[in-house]
User: What shape does this take?
Amino acid sequence: MSGIAALLLELGHEVTGSDKVSTVETDRLQRRGLCFHEQHRAAAASNADLIVFSSAIKFDNPILVSARDLGKPVVRRAEALAAIMGAKRGILIAGMHGKTTTSAMTAHVLREGGLHPSHYVGAEIPILGTNAHWDSRGQYFVAEGDESDGTLICFHPEHSLILNIEEEHLDFYVDLAAIEKVFARLIEQTSRTVFYNIDDANAARLCAKRKGAISFGFSEKADYRAADIELRNFASVFSVYRQGEQLGEAVLNVPGQHNVQNAVGVIALATELGIPFDKIAASLCKFEHARRRFEIKYESDRFLLVDDYAHHPTEIRATLKTATSIGRKRVLTMFQPHRYSRTKALRNEFGRAFDDADRVIVTEIYPASEAPIPGISGETISNEIAMHGHRGVSYQPRFEWIHRDVGNMLDSGDVVMSLGAGNIHEQLALLAADLVIAEKLRSIVGEQGDVRLYEPLSRHTTLRVGGPAQFWVEPRDESAFAELIRYCSREGLPLFVVGRGSNLLVRDGGIRGVVVHPCGGEFDKIDVNGNEITAGVGAKLKEVAYVGKTAGLGGLEWMEGIPGAVGGGLRMNAGAMGAQTFENVVRVRYLDHDGNPHVKRRDDLDVHYRNFPLLESNFAVSAVFRGQPAPKEEIVRNLKASQQKRRTSQPAAKSAGCIFKNPDSCPAGKLVDELGLKNSRVGKARVSEVHGNFIVNDGGATAADMLELIDKIKGVARAKRGIELETEVQIVGED
Ligand code: EPU
Assistant: This one.
């Protein structure tokens, strides 16, 4: 519709328009004189001489109702376009696939050939400036015809370029015969030459008998033929022959064999209009195609992200073929089916369309204006693909999560494609933006570190629940950690530190921003110096106890019962066997929010039960613990006692340790036990029968299950005992 509005404005008409939403397009048109309303109001019809409407507009739209009441002329978009085209010598590009690119290419070649064509194409084309333009200097008008609603019959062009004909838009047409009828009418109404793709059986059958028709394609029989095609990265080089005679070589900077085929059609038309071949070849070489047609969204040595509008099985096959021809390693595809009717009609064909993709993630259907069809969903397609024998297909019904699934699979050398006519490109854009950040993070942590996108935190928490970390980053030394802190602060990215995840409940939506996991390298080191043990934050707390044993240092045995790392032990002032972390701490080394290092002695630190506030906005790097020289046997005995206590009083199942802090009046475990809540459950989350302060994951529990069970326990403790339980486990992330 924006193209029609633009043309009418350029022709000097007064144009008003309405839509449910304003867009960059409506803003641009407003600057060119459009009077725009973000609402469909009946009053809009009263001052108009003509009302043009899109086929997406319903019959009972207030403007249409009012126009009919007032007896105003009302025409469909295609009828308006056909009328505008009627003022010039029309060239119509028609077919199921590739018409936007081909009509843009035609307009571009004619423009470069000095013919000053006017044009109308179905997308924003950077090289043409706008999707529609009226040039009063030229005679020709190039337009993309829309076959979806039968309106091709409105056109009476001088020339038609027919690209391909097959089953599509079965919400409108009964069958292929009905589609062909419409094309036959267009061919009949074309006053001069019909150009047709001879490699397309249906187009050839319909057009060949037409007098004076000119064929193009790869076939030996084609009037205009492309041969010796060499596909290079994103370009194709090929020779062009006219009736066996070589016209020359052409370079097309748009990938894909199907685009070579369309380009020969454009060459045929332009040659017949009298443009010399070298001029045609020179302009083809400069051609850049439309947005969302193999549009590169991100490119580096490691990854290539490409968006394409492909939504029909034939288009998907062609686009994936192009993606594999680029010669990278794997092709990962996110696909958003378009329309329930197309999904239903072509489900078998969709099942076979993804053979060239290594991995396919299908999300929910983009309905366009359609109502759902019972039993038809994105899963219909993922099932079809799997039934066809593809081993790498999955279904992700949550649209906003699809980029995470693909991002977490990413490996160096991958091509990621977003395919569909809806809004799937938004997901690819999110992935591209995150990749820019991920690559920066990678440069900070260097070769020895690790960066993963959307890493599921269920893999990094002892409870085994939780959504993904947007950026999972493992620095191996203090300077990389400091640089990460500075980078996040500069970029306004939240930064959260996860140790062994033993006291952590991450919500199912995961954690936004950078999740730092200091581990390996100097973070895992434990050194003994006299009675002091220095441990990096990544080391296990129980390791400190065992190193103590080897060095003959006691008083640390209680740490054996803590599953977490030194960092978590500090942050939570973790405790067991009546002892707690800071009873053994001598000094803590940490980085502040500017990444500067500090060392503080125990006496200068503010520490509470299960809380060390300094680490709310600073980041621990290492700590020095003090042990007391003790006989080995005594240490071993204490370690065994701690182990025994843990094994007999705590569950072995997946848990996050104690869920609640012990209230003053009674240990939380005892309270839950007395309240009779052991073994109570929500989903797969269950209160342990061994210890009332543990909630265990019976396999497949969600954070939502866990949180509901926690709330339930708190509610009962409040109601029956008047005790306000406070969680000890850290609850983080988004729903
Ligand atoms: N109890 C019951 N029923 C239960 C659980 C406990 O009656 O289901 C009774 C016990 O018999 C005992 C009392 O409650 O008389 C306290 O229980 P426990 O000795 O197991 O200690 P806790 O206070 O529940 C604390 C730490 C644990 C640590 C143990 C062992 C807290 C919140 N918890 O548990 O730490 O492992 O001592 O020393 O301070 C953790 O913080 O994540 C954690 C597991």
Q: What stands out?
A: The longest strand covers residues 224-232. The chain has a mean pLDDT of 95. The pocket of EPU is lined by residues 503, 561, 574-577, 645, 649, 657-658, 661-662, 667, 669-670, 673, 691-693, 728 (CB under 6 Å).
